Amino acid sequence: MIDKLLSDPWAAFWAARRTVLMGAGAGLLLAVLVCLLAPAKWEARMTIGPAGRGTGPDLSAFLPASESPTIQYLLQRVGSMAAADFAVYETLLTSPRIASSLLKDQTLKPRLGNLCGGCDADTSKLSGWLEGHVRIRPVAATQMRRITLALHDKTLATDLLRALHRLADETIRADVRLKTDQRIVYLREKMAEVVNPAQRDALVALLKEQERQSMMVGIDNDFAAEMIDPPSIPVRPVFPNPVLLLPLFILLGAAGGFGYALLRRS
Asked: pTM of the entire structure?
């Protein structure tokens, strides 16, 4: 039979056509059973982008060439600080730090046990689960990111994405607020000690930047990442997907039937 398959594959296939059809039918039946009985898995998705604070053109280009280099440097940094916070946001989203904050959320903690064994009590397990299931993908060639999470529970999937965004953004805001307050205290102390006018001008420029940052932190808006499209669930589940499962199982069943026919004849 193997020699016949190599010399005339179509004749070998035709000879095993009944077994191939039976295998394809069995694959079709199995695919239908999977689609009917398997629990549906839904994919929650949201789109985020860098927060709009301080972004825009390079304002230092509008300053005269004789202007203080310190002020030019500060204006050039305005956009880069927001980009850096957004990069930190992406890293924090599935980190143990955010997992620990999730475990302190009394509305979500009882439901985290549905994710994995120990996810409602162990920070490392919850963080590992988040790293394996939360997907962050770029949106075309933009700075925006699409974040997805597939779960059997639609409500938990959307609530978890919303909580991850809120906790990551609040964590970055708290870190920036702490560092800004420390810098303001330090700069004010140095100004009381400095006598040189040029040094005082530099310190004043730095202090203004930190005070501006302090005001931005106090604004009750998204700080590091802005939610462009809130968490939502598509109309159809990602699993089971009949469009993919039916042809796949039919092909596997037909291949299995053909293989069985070859073994039986040889």
From this structure: 0.77
